[in-house]
User: Fold this.
Amino acid sequence: MLALLGAASNRSVAAAAAGSGAAKLYVSEALGPYAGLLSERPLLAASGGFGTSLVVEIPAIRSDVQPQVSTIEIAAPLRDFRGEGDVDFGLRALARAARLLAELPAAAPVRIAFLADEGSALPEGLRAHMHDGLQDAADALDEPSRALFLYVDLSREPSRPRLEYGTDDGIAPRYLVETLLESFELRGLRLPLAVPYTELYRLKLVAGRTELRLLRERRIPAALFADEARGANPGGAGPSVSAEDFAAVLAASARRLAEAEPLDDERYALFPTSAAPIVLPEAASVAVFIAAWGLLLLVFLGYSVTHRQLLVARWNVFLKRLWIVAGFLAALAGCFVLAGWTLSLLLKAFGAESAAASYATAALKLFLAYAYYYAFTPLIFFRAPRRAHFYGSAAVMLLALGALTAAVLDFTFVPVYVWAGSFAFIASMIVSPTPALVPTILAPLQILGSAAAAIGSGDAGAARAIMDGGLGIDLYLALLSLPFMFLFRRIPILSRAQTIRKKGKAFSAGAYRIYTRPILVAGALAAAAVFASRSADAERHRPRPVRETGVDSARFSVSSSSSAFLESRTVRLRFESAIPPDRIDLTLVSADKLSVYDAPVPFDLSEDGRTAVFRLGEKPPTPLRLEITLAKDAAARFEAGALYYDAKTDRALTLRASSEVAPEARP
Assistant:
C-alpha cells in the first residue's frame, strides 16, 4: 500500500515542480521584451499553499484622467504541463493577452495572474481547502470594491467559453456583463451565459461557482469564463474560439472596462434570445412592465367596446365563482405535499434517501403531484365550471397577480411574468381551439427555459428546494403551475364547444377519464418505486473509499527544537516522511490558553483559545520545516497527520505523529 502511494506521490510532486518551471518559461517567452513584468508570488505565508503563482503587472497608460477602476485582474489556474504541446487554453490565452496589453496598456493597471494551488488531487471528503492562489490574489488587491476580476477556467483547445456571472449572494454589475458580451460581439463571436436568468440567483436556486463566491465575499465584482460542459444555455452552444481570438477579446475588454464609469447596477434582468442575450436595466424592466400592462389594457378596452354585453356576462360569472380558484389552488398545493410525502416514503423504504437532492427526484415529485391533481380534483370539485372563459380569466388573473407581486419584490422577475401573462391573455381571447393552442404552449416557455438553465448549471439547489422546501415552496409551485394548467384545460373545452356547434353533439369522455385517472396515478407510483429501487441498488454497489489511520514513526515523524528570546520561544518543527505525503495536517493543543505570536502559515484559533489549527496546502515538500513562535512558558503538544491517497484504489492512509513542547525552565 505505502509503496503504491509513494510512487503516485513522487510522480505528482515531480510533475508539479516541472510544470511550474515550464509555465514560467512559457510566459516569459510569450512576453518577449516585456518579460521583466513577470514575477513570482509564493503562497505559503498567505494561504498555506506550497505552490508559487506567476503574476504579470502591467502599469496603466499615462493619462491625466483618474480611472474609476483601481485594478483589472485576469487570472487562470496554473495547471501542470511539460512542453509547448501540453499548454492548456487558459494559459495560452492569458499569456497572449498579457503581451497585447503590455504593447498597448489600458487606462487602469492590469494584473495577469497564473494561480497555483487552485485545484486538488484529493477527493472531496479529503480536501483541506482549495483556491489558495485565488484567495491570495484577491487579498492582494488594494481597493477590492473598485477592482474587477475575470477568472478564466478554460482547459480545452479550441474552447467554447460560457460566462458565469453570479452566485446566490448576488450577480456581477451590469456594466461588466455588458462589456464582455459586446467585446465578443465586436469580434464576431457570441458569448453564451451559463445561466441566462438572473432570477435563479436571486431566488437562491443556483449557488454559483466557488471562485465567484470567494470573490463575492470580498466584495470584488467578478465574472468567470468556463468550459462548455459547465452550465446550460437554451439558446444553444457558443461558437468555437481560438486562444488568439480569446486573448484579443480579453485585451479589448480590459481597455474598455478601464475607461468605463462603473455603475453598481445589480438589479438588471436578462432576456435570452437565439443571438446574444438582451440586458435589461431595472429602468428598462419598469418600462417593459408599464408598456405591457398598457397594451393589454388597451386591447381589453377595445374588446370591451366591441363585445360589451358578452364581456360583462363573462366577468359576472367569473367573479361569482372566484372562490373556486382558491379551492383549485389549495387542492394543487395539497397534491404537491402528498407527492413529496409519498416520494420520501418510497425513498426511505428502499434506502435511497441520498437520491432526494437530484433533479430526477424533483421531476418525479412534479409528475406525482400532477397525477394526483388530475385524479382527485374532479372528486372534490364535481360542480367545477365547464366554461372556457372561466379558466382563461383565472389564468390571466393569477399571472397578473404574480407580475404585480414580482414588481413589488424585484423588477428582475418581471420579464418572465410579462412574457407568460401576455401569451396567457392572448390565449384567453381566442375562442378557436387550434389557434388558442399556440399562445398556450408559448406562455410557459420562459419558465421552462429557466428550469432547463437551473438543471444544466450542475447545481442541485432547485432540486433541493423542490424536495425540502416545505409548505411554502409547495404553495409557490402550485401558484406557478395552476395558470398554465387552466390554459391547457381550456383547450378541450373549446374543442367540445366547436364540435357541438358543427355536429350538434360532442363526444362524452366521462367513462374514459374515470379509467385513465387511476391508471395515471398507478403509473406515477410505479415509476417512483422503480426509481427508488434503482437508486438504492446503485448506492449499494457504489465502491466505498477505504480510510486507514495508524502510527509509523519510521515512515512519518515530527521532531522539534526551540530557543527562547525575552518572553517568546521559537519552536522549530521538522516533518520527515519516507514517502512524500499528499497533505500534512498540523494542530497545536494545550490545556491552557495559547498565545501564537508568529507562524509561517495561516492558522485558526478555537473559541476557547486552547487549540490552533494551521492551514497547510497539498503536496508539501519533504522534509518540511516550520518555525512557530509561542509564549515562553507555553506547555502544548503538536499533533500532525500525514495523508497518503491512491486514486486508483480510492484508498487513503493517515500516519500520525506528535511532539511535546515543555515550558521553558526558569532560573
Q: What stands out?
A: The mean pLDDT is 81. The radius of gyration is 31 Å. The longest strand covers residues 636-646. DSSP finds 19 helices and 21 strands in the chain.
